[in-house]
Amino acid sequence: MAPPPSYTVSPVVSLIVRLLTFICLLISLILLATATGTASTTYADVEVRFNDFIAYRYLCAAVVIGLAYTAMQSAFTVYQITTGNRFGGEGLVLIDFYCDKVASYILATGGAASIGMALDLKDLGDALGISNFMGVANAAASLCLLAFLGTAVSSIFSSFALPKRV
């Protein structure tokens, strides 16, 4: 009986996907950290920032985790390109696969929770005059979801490196 076919993805392609993911996450973090708005209430004007909303705080945490993980994996990929060997040998292939899965789920839930909250609060944001803030925060969440796609693709690439069993 023949073993199942083996597919491999060039480390250069993997690095490109990881770098695009990193760029999306970095822009997302910058947008989220700099987004501010002024809510006009009856009593006073209140400055609104991302840390005033739990979903945006979760988005920030997801993006920071995604940035750290993507930077680490990019460094491992650069090591593989320059030396021709995987960092840690073949023993870390399974760990890479599962970590890619976890990272993609964290990014997906961070972006989805933020967009869901923004849709629920759209009318309130319009009434308070913070729709510009909500728009910038939504752009950050959208970039996080785009980065999720990058980590999902990386997860597929890492699945190709898993040992084939007959």
Give the gist of this structure.
The chain has 166 residues and is mainly alpha-helical. It has helices spanning 11-34, 54-83, 93-120, 122-128, 131-160, and strands spanning 36-40, 45-49.
Written account of the structure:
The chain contains five helices and two strands; from the N terminus they run H-E-E-H-H-H-H. The model has no long low-confidence stretch (mean pLDDT 87). It has 166 residues and is mostly helical. Helix 1 (11-34) runs antiparallel to helix 2.
What would the keywords be for this entry?
166 residues; mainly alpha; two-stranded antiparallel sheet; 5 helices; 2 strands; 6% strand
Which value, in Å, is the CA radius of gyration? 20 Å
How would you describe the shape?
elongated
Termini gap: 8 Å
Can you tell me the residue ranges where pLDDT is under 50 for at least 5 consecutive residues?
none
The SSE string, one letter per element, is HEEHHHH
Look at the structure and give the mean pLDDT.
87
Strand order of the largest sheet: 1-2
Helical percentage: over 70%
For the report, how would you describe the main beta sheet?
2 strands, antiparallel
Count of alpha and pi helical runs = 5
Q: Helix/strand-derived class?
A: mainly alpha
Total E-strand runs: 2
Strand content: 5-15%
Helices, strands, pairings?
Blueprint: H1 11-34, E1 36-40, E2 45-49, H2 54-83, H3 93-120, H4 122-128, H5 131-160
Helix pairs in contact: 1-2, 1-5, 2-3, 2-5, 3-5
